[in-house]
Write a structure and sequence with these properties.
The chain is an alpha/beta fold. It has two domains: 154 residues, Acetylglutamate kinase-like (Carbamate kinase, 3-Layer(aba) Sandwich); 48 residues, no CATH class. The chain has eight helices and eleven strands. Strands 4-3-5-2-1-6-10-11-9 form a nine-stranded mixed sheet, with helices on both faces. It has a two-stranded antiparallel ribbon with strand order 7-8. Helix 1 links the parallel strand 1 and strand 2.
Length: 235
């Protein structure tokens, strides 16, 4: 395996499957099987999941809601998704721990770096919920922050698109896909990979990002094995 310890970033929208909102149990089960496949090979897996399938703080703020309140609601949405993913993984016999940046001791452990790393060493999948625990920070920022803290080898951003393109491939049929691209080129070309805070943090800590299609069966294993699918962002 090319990578020993990974941080997998999943969007909340990915959990909707074909639905308009909420959580699709079939999609969760598919993800659980893909994750189980790589944990069986000894890969240590941490996961950060968004909450956009349930609530977005930015959307709430645009409708007149207090931004801080909205972001706190978004953090709770990520915990709901984390609980759902934890249940799906445990149904697949994958030992799992959910840690949150905000204290909800009845349903999850608080985030403690050393404890998270110990869980990973013992072969447990660790799901990080609650974002960074702070308003105005996205789950992309949480993913990069946690990846650095647990000393992950790479951030895998699982999306519904198979990499980074010159334009949105769902809107522009002439868009061209990059196999590899540098952090600097992403910024120069104005490409959207992550929010600027998260992307800069990743660049400063020399942490590569791979954007790939998580919805295609077997892709996660291919990325872990070093196959050149998706797009790799590196120095």
């Amino acid at each position: 395996m090319k990578y020993k310890r990974i941080l997998l970033k999943l969007s909340g929208e990915a959990l909707m499957g074909t639905r308009q909102y909420g959580i699709d149990p079939d999609r969760l089960a598919e993800y659980a099987q893909d994750i189980k496949e790589i944990t069986n090979l000894g890969v240590e897996v941490a996961i950060v999941i968004g909450g956009g399938n349930i609530f977005r703080g930015v959307a709430g703020a645009s409708n007149g809601m207090d931004r801080v309140q909205g972001d706190h609601m978004g953090m709770l949405a990520t915990v709901i998704n984390g609980l759902a993913l934890q249940s799906a993984l445990e149904d697949a016999d994958v030992p799992t721990r959910l840690q949150t940046a905000i204290k909800i001791n009845e349903v999850a452990e608080p985030f403690i770096r050393r404890k998270a790393m110990r869980h990973l060493q013992k072969g447990r999948v660790v799901i990080f919920g609650g974002g960074t625990g702070n308003p105005y920070f996205t789950t992309d920022s949480a993913a990069v922050l946690r990846a650095i803290e647990i000393e992950a080898d790479v951030i895998l951003k699982g999306t519904r698109v198979d990499g980074i393109y010159t334009a949105d491939p769902e809107k522009d049929s002439a868009a061209v896909k990059f196999d590899n691209i540098t952090f600097d080129d992403v910024l120069k070309k104005g490409l959207k990979v992550m929010d600027t805070t998260a992307f800069t943090l990743s660049q400063e800590n020399k942490l590569p990002i791979i954007v790939f299609d998580m919805n295609k069966k077997g892709n996660l294993l291919k990325v872990i094995s070093g196959e050149n699918i998706g797009t790799t962002v590196n120095l």
